[in-house]
Amino acid sequence: MRQLLTEARKLAELRSLLNRKRIKDHRTTRQKGEKRPCLTIYKVFSWTLLIISVIMAPTTIWVKDTTFARVSLIHKIVFDFSIVVMYVTNIYISALGILKQKQLSKLLGEVLEDISSGYGFILHFTIFVIYHTIGIVMILFTQFQRSDSMTYQFVVLFGDGFLTFRLVGVFFIISLIIKRIREKLKKFNKKLTQPNEVMHIKAYRVSHNILCDHIQTVNSLCGLILLLVILFIITTFLRHAVFTSQFYNTLLVAMVRCSWILASGCQAAYLAYVGQQIAAESEQTVAICYKQMLKTSTNKIENDANQEFFLLAQQVVNRTTKISAAGFFNIDNSMILFMATTFFTYFIVVMQLMFCRSC
């Protein structure tokens, strides 16, 4: 009886500690939010981009279709669909920044606090910015050579330049958020393998439940963005591949387009790798729980610990820890196969239609 009272007292102290920590974190987040006037600037920026994107989407299609009236109809359809996806994605990102400003600022604030002091992040971010900046500048250079029209060059600068870099940048930020989730799961599993008391295992259940809530928040905020950005990457792959197949004699054009395809493909592959690691860490959590349960003992305290490990394993199985693209598919290795099959299927269809039309 005395032992039960002691465990109940420890559990009550643990709950009190967790409540105090939540209150402290809430106050810290609120204070940081009050000291961020840049959020207002970001909201104005989002509204501006939203309005401009709505206006520029049909304008871009009209200007390019008019400038290159002699281009085949199939090529125009591929390009127009890629442009529509790009503008729809940017419009959704701007709308999300306006409607979910507090949730996004909190999510990004946590990521920036963890990575701002890491030299690895600075190196990766620098390489990312330099590589994609050079790629986009070269694409703009090759596009400007196709026409001397100022209207066409402005449309290319805004669409293929700024908005494309914005989408790639958002994709990079989401990759950082998902990577942070993986690091949390790795630390969780590392602590779980250490000798633990019953109250510690209950605390782990609470921590894992909070982590699952965080993953659910990431899926609700970033799921549709991931779907649209991946669709944009596939359509851009298709657009560059079709363009390169027609202008393969121009070495610079072929190198620039293939370089952009390679860069975006590597970024998507890295995101799939991190998502696969999250799924693997969740499976590892269940395996650790069952390994701890196999260490049976007649001691009542260890039997209670085994019960807590069983409850934790059931919680991991029942609560999702996978990153999803708006429920259409999960972000893991299967995403690479999905992107490859989609690209090659439509590329073959487009090339067949273009070949039949030329005959």
Q: TL;DR?
A:
This protein is mainly α. Helix content is 87%, strand content 0%.
What's the total count of β strands? 0
User: How many helical stretches?
Assistant: 10
Mean pLDDT: 77
The SSE order reads HHHHHHHHHH
Give the low-confidence spans. 30-35
Tell me the Rg in angstroms.
25 Å
Protein model, in words:
This protein is mainly alpha-helical. The protein is built from 10 helices and no strands. It has helices at 2-34, 38-67, 73-99, 101-115, 119-144, 150-192, 198-246, 251-294, 300-318, 333-358. The longest helix is centred in the middle third of the chain and has 49 residues, at 198-246. The protein is elongated, with a radius of gyration of 25 Å. Residues 30-35 have low confidence and may be disordered.
Descriptive keywords:
359 residues; mainly alpha; elongated
What topology emerges from the helices and strands here?
Blueprint: H1 2-34, H2 38-67, H3 73-99, H4 101-115, H5 119-144, H6 150-192, H7 198-246, H8 251-294, H9 300-318, H10 333-358
